[in-house]
């Protein structure tokens, strides 16, 4: 999760920065749905955009804002490092070794990130991929509306057998994984640039075909028009189902529309599917909590954001706030995986103190990111440094879930991700388990083994993640 502090306006707390500010030097921006204000930092002077300028700037930002200042080296010479990102990795190495900062602090592009958080804009095929580490196979677990893959007939359950730039140089996926792991598949699929074309040999519905798909610019729909929000009738009862892909601005109207329907149908038991949701805006997590928490008091805290001692003026909190579309959820089944992180975990954790065993985690353990970033811009260089700067807790001040939420949940049910069925289908394994929980049936608890990165999971099936993911791939893991 990320926070943005804008020098020109009151701070708005959110998981990610929404716009750049500054005059070519450094500026700090934060986002917040709480309406809290924060002191704007003094811009760090800069002489330009040489590698040393940018490295010195990054070190200065970390020294000022990093949540774990005691882990930073006192004086690390940047000379041996050929990129800013490599230098940042070296500066944060101790915190990473302590499992506090698992590559949550990183350099990105202002323009690219703003485009994603404002509208889900990205370039790609519009699919989310998982791979079987044992069998060395790659499957599509989700395809996005308005993107080229779905238009080519590629959807959830499609297996990718081979990748090439032409039909004559197709490389078998099993060989790519055997040689280079999942990064071999990443490399074969090419850069996230509009116009990049690949020939794919695929199996869809038992039929093998070869298709050419070209990456294009598209806007991600955060709540699918096909299965993102629906009412499931099972065992004579009605249940709300909502699947949020990512916490971006355009999720606001989509979530409100879903809960308008739930409220009209008298829904109080809900499935919230976050199985691939890597995070996004805190403000959208707050809204989602408000929409589910119509029976919560305005004095009930949803989350607390806490900075290091010298930055406590930036601390903030969100209390449940009634919305016209809010429902009073009595039981919630949160579907999660180790691709479920950040704002998704804020949402789940926020209900534990109030619903207790009536809030369950379904699926597998989550990623474990109880900290958030501020965004510091060096706009002349299109540099944005996402630096871990605050910790997140729920209303009971619980927030040490670095190894995932499973150990903190009073109820959980282990379930697989069955991509032979559509998302939101009552026959799909995780949805079925969620319905069983809401109906009061028994289940097996989720084991709570820790993980080290979004691309490393305890299960054989893993979301495909590049070594250096884009903003889209961080917040919508597995996407290409």
Assign a percent range to the helix content: 10-25%
Low-confidence stretches: 2-46, 450-458
The percentage of residues in β strands lies in: 25-35%
Number of helical segments? 12
- Count the strands? 22
Helix/sheet category: alpha+beta
Global shape: globular
Mean pLDDT: 88
- How many angstroms does the end-to-end distance come to? 22 Å
Query: Could you describe the largest sheet, including whether it forms a barrel?
Result: 7 strands, mixed
Gyration radius (Cα, Å) is 22 Å
Summarize the SSE layout with pairings.
Blueprint (H helix, E strand, L loop, with lengths): L1 E2 L22 E4 L21 H15 L18 H8 L1 H5 L8 E4 H10 L1 E4 L2 E6 L4 E7 L4 H4 L7 E6 L6 E2 H8 L1 H8 L7 E8 L2 E8 L1 E4 L9 E6 L2 E7 L7 H14 L4 E5 L8 H11 L8 E7 L8 E4 L11 E6 L6 H13 L3 E5 L7 E8 L4 E11 L17 E4 L14 H10 L22 E3 L7 H5 L5
Parallel strand pairs: 1-19, 13-14, 14-17, 17-18, 18-21
Antiparallel strand pairs: 2-19, 3-20, 4-11, 5-6, 5-22, 6-7, 7-8, 7-9, 9-10, 12-13, 15-16, 15-20, 19-20
Helix pairs in contact: 1-2, 6-7, 8-9, 9-10
Features of the shown structure:
480 residues; alpha+beta; seven-stranded mixed beta sheet; seven-stranded antiparallel beta sheet; 12 helices; disordered N terminus
Explain how this protein is built.
With about 475 residues, the protein is α+β, with helices and mostly antiparallel strands. The chain contains 12 helices and 22 strands. Strands 1, 2, 3, 15, 16, 19 and 20 form a 7-stranded mixed beta sheet that branches. Strands 5, 6, 7, 8, 9, 10 and 22 form a 7-stranded antiparallel beta sheet that branches. It has a 6-stranded mixed beta sheet with strand order 12-13-14-17-18-21, sandwiched between helices. Strand 17, helix 10 and strand 18 form a beta-alpha-beta unit. Helix 1 runs parallel beside helix 2.
């Amino acid at each position: 999760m990320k926070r943005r502090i804008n020098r020109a306006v009151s701070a708005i707390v959110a998981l990610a920065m929404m716009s750049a500010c500054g005059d070519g030097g450094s500026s700090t921006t934060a986002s917040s749905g709480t309406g809290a204000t924060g002191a704007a930092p003094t811009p760090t002077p800069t002489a330009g955009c040489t590698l040393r300028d940018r490295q010195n700037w990054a070190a200065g930002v970390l020294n000022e804002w990093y949540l774990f200042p005691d882990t930073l080296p006192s004086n690390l010479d940047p000379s041996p490092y050929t990129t800013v990102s490599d230098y940042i990795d070296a500066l944060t190495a101790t915190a990473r070794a302590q499992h506090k900062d698992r590559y949550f602090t990183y350099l990105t592009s202002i323009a690219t990130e703003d485009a994603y958080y404002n509208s889900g804009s990205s370039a790609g095929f519009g699919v989310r991929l998982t791979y079987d580490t044992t069998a060395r196979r790659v499957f599509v677990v989700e395809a996005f509306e308005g993107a080229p893959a779905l238009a080519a007939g590629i959807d959830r359950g499609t297996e990718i057998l081979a990748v090439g730039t032409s039909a004559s140089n197709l490389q078998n996926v099993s060989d790519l994984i055997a040689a280079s792991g999942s990064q071999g598949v990443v490399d074969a699929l090419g850069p996230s640039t509009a116009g990049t074309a690949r020939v794919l040999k695929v199996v869809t519905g038992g039929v093998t075909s070869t298709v050419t798909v070209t990456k294009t610019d598209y806007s991600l729909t955060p709540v699918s028009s096909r299965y993102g929000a629906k009412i499931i009738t099972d065992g004579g009862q009605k249940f709300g189902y909502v699947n949020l892909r990512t916490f971006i601005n355009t999720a606001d109207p989509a979530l409100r529309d879903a809960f308008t329907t739930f409220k009209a149908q008298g829904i109080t038991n809900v499935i919230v599917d976050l199985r691939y949701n890597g995070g996004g805006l805190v403000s959208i997590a707050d809204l989602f909590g408000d929409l589910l928490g119509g029976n919560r008091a305005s004095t009930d805290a949803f989350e607390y954001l806490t900075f290091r001692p010298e930055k406590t003026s930036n601390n903030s909190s969100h209390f449940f706030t009634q919305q016209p579309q809010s429902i009073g959820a009595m039981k919630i089944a949160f579907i999660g995986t180790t691709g479920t992180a950040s704002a998704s975990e804020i949402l789940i954790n926020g209900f534990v103190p109030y619903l207790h065993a009536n809030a369950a985690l379904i699926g597998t353990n989550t990623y474990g990111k109880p900290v958030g970033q501020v965004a510091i811009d060096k706009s002349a260089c299109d540099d944005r440094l996402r630096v871990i700067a605050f910790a997140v807790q729920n209303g009971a001040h619980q927030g040490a879930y670095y190894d995932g939420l499973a150990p903190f949940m009073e109820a959980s049910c282990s379930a697989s991700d069955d991509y032979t069925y559509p998302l939101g289908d009552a026959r799909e394994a995780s949805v079925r388990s969620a319905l069983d929980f809401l109906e009061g049936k028994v289940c097996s608890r989720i084991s709570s083994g820790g993980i080290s990165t979004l691309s490393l999971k305890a299960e054989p099936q893993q979301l495909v993640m590049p070594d250096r993911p884009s903003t889209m791939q961080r917040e919508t893991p597995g996407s290409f």
